[in-house]
Specification:
The protein is an alpha/beta fold. The chain has an eight-stranded parallel β-sheet. A three-stranded antiparallel β-sheet has the order 1-2-3. A two-stranded antiparallel ribbon has the order 12-13.
């Protein structure tokens, strides 16, 4: 078994801004595992919010003892981007060696297309209204907010896309007071769900607070060890492979979350189709799917995922799985 690691930069079609900052390119780490004449691939997006860089992720992967399988990997690396890339590459490798699709190996039904949210970057109200107008035909828009002056932005997006379904991602940017002020207006403006309104370390304020629309945990939910702290605060959890450390833990978290009564959202960092492909298995039956990363890039990988009116389609074997 051999593991090769590469860092790649994929330019974005436009500046992508959230409450924590902005970027013009997606920097990803790609893992290729070769064994028995087959090659499996996985992709992760190191995230500074969680103390990750391409260099730190690469070092984690380089420190693995080979050969390794998915079961051993779960304890060899912590949940996070590095384990995600290796875990997904191992799933792909297993499928290639067996000549089967990965969902068959996982004991899952064949995936179907999923309607995905399309993300509108944080900007001025006028710019966000223009973004919304350009994307108004899409069935689900996700709005990046997270400042004390977000009400005009939300109203502007609704003007730009009066018929679209809307969800909000505050990226930990609101205080309890700001959220309490905005919350009554969310239902009026047709917002279906708000994601991570408060910082993960301050989300205890959500206990007992009115929730006129469902609240989803993102930064507060990484893997199954996060779950005990979510009760009474959140209605849904946003599962991302870069947080769980791969598809293996993500599937387990999905089942555990549903068993405890949480709704499920499946999200992504901004990456290529290779990063989205494993998440399509996870997204089946999810309340919300946000796998629009490739739509935000100027170009994508060969054998890219197909996006159309039906949503994002399952991957070809040549891409992954």
């Amino acid at each position: 078994m051999r593991i090769d690691v590469a860092t790649e930069t994929w330019p974005l079609a436009r500046v992508f801004a959230i409450s924590r900052g902005a970027k013009v390119a997606a920097e990803v780490v790609t893992v290729t595992i070769a064994q028995g004449g087959a090659r499996g691939r996985g992709e992760c997006v190191p995230y500074a919010r969680y103390g990750e860089t391409p260099a730190s992720v690469t070092a984690q992967i380089a420190g693995l003892s080979l050969p390794i399988d998915r079961a051993a990997l779960q304890s060899a690396l912590p949940a996070g981007a590095a384990r995600n890339a290796v875990d997904c590459a191992l799933w792909d490798l297993e499928a290639k060696l067996a000549g089967r699709r990965v969902w068959d190996i996982a004991g899952l039904p064949p995936p179907r297309p999923c309607v995905t949210a399309y993300t509108l970057s944080l900007d001025t109200p006028a710019a966000m209204e223009a973004q919304a107008r350009d994307q108004a035909a899409r069935p689900l828009l996700k709005i990046k907010l997270g400042t004390p002056e977000d009400m005009p932005r939300l109203e502007a997006v609704r003007r730009g896309a009066p018929g679209a379904r809307i969800i909000i991602d505050a990226n930990e940017g609101w205080s309890a007071a700001v959220y309490a002020d905005l919350a009554p207006h969310l239902r009026r403006l047709g917002v279906e769900m708000v994601e991570q309104p408060l910082p993960a370390g301050a989300d205890g304020a959500l206990v007992g607070m009115a929730r006129p629309v469902p609240v989803c945990a993102d930064e507060s939910c990484h893997d199954r060890t996060s779950q005990p702290g979510l009760a009474g605060k959140y209605d849904l959890v946003n599962i991302k492979l870069d947080k769980t450390g791969g598809l293996t833990e993500a599937l387990a978290l999905r089942d555990a979350a549903r068993a405890q009564g949480f709704g499920v959202m499946v999200g992504c960092m901004v990456g290529t189709s290779l990063a989205m492909a494993p998440a399509l298995l996870l997204a089946q039956g999810a309340a919300y799917v946000d796998l629009d990363g490739p739509l935000l890039l100027t170009q994508d990988r060969d054998h890219a995922l197909r996006y159309d009116a039906a949503g994002v389609h399952p991957p070809d074997a040549a891409l992954w799985g």
